[in-house]
Known about the structure:
Layout: H1 6-30, H2 34-47, H3 58-74, H4 76-79, H5 84-112, H6 122-136
Amino acid sequence: MYLGDRNQRFGIYWLAFGYTLALHVLDEASHDFLSVYNPNAMAIRRFLPFLPVPVFTFRQWIGSLLCGLAIWLALAPLAFRGLKWQRRLAIPVALLAGIGNALGHILSSIYLRRFMPGVYSAPLILLSGIVLLRSALGMESGVASE
């Protein structure tokens, strides 16, 4: 399937990542993510007081995530231009919010032997994070460097 040139593909992957991340936020919110996250954050704070792990109210948490998603999606038209700064921004976001986040949900579900909030959509953000990362790094399979 032809998805256009390198910049068009990057823009498509940027949008796909934003939408899968939005679906992941919905998954977490509908499965009471904060009831798992906040007690763990408090325990980490007690054990490592120098580590600034935030504790959220639902309003703070959902508001900051929605703000971040809105900014990500608002930048989508620029992603179709393949700007260098945007490709650089996509790398840590794909690694942390995509791959790392997804693996955290999946591995904690395996370790605890129960479905953790957000695990249903975790495979999607893992896949979209990998695809976005590969595109940002110019490592798309079957595509010569342009």
